[in-house]
Amino acid sequence: MQIGIVGLGLMGGSLALDLRRHGLAQKILGFDKSDEHKKTAKELGLVDEVATLEDLKRTCDVIFLAIPVEGIIALLPQLADIDPKTTIIDLGSTKERIVKACPPAIRKNFVPAHPMTGTEHSGPKAAVEGLYEGKIVVLCDVEQCGEEHRKRAEDIFKALGMQIVYMDAAEHDLHAAYISHLPHAISYALANSVLGQEDPKAILALAAGGFRDMSRLAKSSPDMWVDIFKQNRENLLEAMEVFKKELRTAITLIEEQRWEELRSWMERATTLHKIL
Amino acid sequence: MQIGIVGLGLMGGSLALDLRRHGLAQKILGFDKSDEHKKTAKELGLVDEVATLEDLKRTCDVIFLAIPVEGIIALLPQLADIDPKTTIIDLGSTKERIVKACPPAIRKNFVPAHPMTGTEHSGPKAAVEGLYEGKIVVLCDVEQCGEEHRKRAEDIFKALGMQIVYMDAAEHDLHAAYISHLPHAISYALANSVLGQEDPKAILALAAGGFRDMSRLAKSSPDMWVDIFKQNRENLLEAMEVFKKELRTAITLIEEQRWEELRSWMERATTLHKIL
Prior knowledge:
homodimer; alpha/beta; about 15% strand; 6-phosphogluconate dehydrogenase C-terminal fold
């Protein structure tokens, strides 16, 4: 099987490493709109060859789209004349608008996927082996996929050691707002809260594991995350309002020194980890 | 040197392990108001002996107070008749009220310390080796400490592999509000945001590293954290207001689709990691 990867950053680069490690591709072709990414990906040996999008379309059995979500929407029309046998799998963090943007002519070829993995780093140099192993991948609206394409995507993700969860795109986007997009917004807001203080260096000198964990997501690429927030705007705003309400509850309880109610509020939060 | 530890949970238990590992104590005596903690600490071999507070006062060269911050304030008066040669070191997460609560008779004996370390777990079974190594410890208002006591505390923390930072108690509490107490409040609020949804299990099934990091602090003991929020109420409320304002900025930018400004807001947050 020849596999093409559009986007040679963290997600695409790591995917190339794992596809090769699991013997899933005879040859991996990579495409990126950035010349620097192409050069680095080749130097690091992430892909066998860098090629044009046309090369990928002409020669690959599977094409992965590992680019920011607005990029996926912009690119899909360019794949509208693809061979009916070619499978297209996107790895975008939002799904509803992407599914809607897929040209009807290739809807059967297209398997919308969201692997629940990543790091706060980006670019080809951020690529790491094992990024996908043991992680969850959400496949959306698969009833609209051609049987052979769905099966091919499932086989690849399973071979990468992933656990597949099925969901419709709308449900995915709502859940992703809470589990991924809201935490990113919070982490950026926390970082900016400290940076806005008189002497952030003195404060950050005291940072231990807790703060580092909470601010890690604030390293994430603004280019990528503006796009995600744009595409999942309504769900994210809803999740942010819910969070703001919880925060307001805590502020009120602390202001009014209602310590027993604050304790109950915290106790409720600790039950999360019985589920997680 | 004989060392006494009041409070045999995560902080006290881990301290016992590290004091022994570094050969800093001939004998470690432990006291806890919970019979169960005393029993477990003895079974796990964290301390050489469990004893009464009176035994610790009578026989130890150094007494560590590794209990919740309200407990430290309640306990300090009971140490007012301690031998002038005995050093008392607390490990509380707030400092100003604790320093004020120290009876003048033993102010020279008392070294207020805050080791910037911990985990989200609690109790003697949570004790781990190496919890203090390579971490920062803040010593507060040391100009009011007796020279020998300050030196003794510094020697112990250095021998544990810690880096000492000096600060006055008021400054410590303000910084700790941003670097530790606010992140805890946020983590509890995030956990409650998800738990308040219709089907938290379906959402949490998608949790990856980012969400796990952001919700980890929400496992922390409400008993301990209500006390900390109580003692650092004004600073914490100030930090929470600053954070709420950042969150509101993000919400407004997303609502009004001002994507370039959102990108700048995110870019600013990413600069945190040039300092951290």
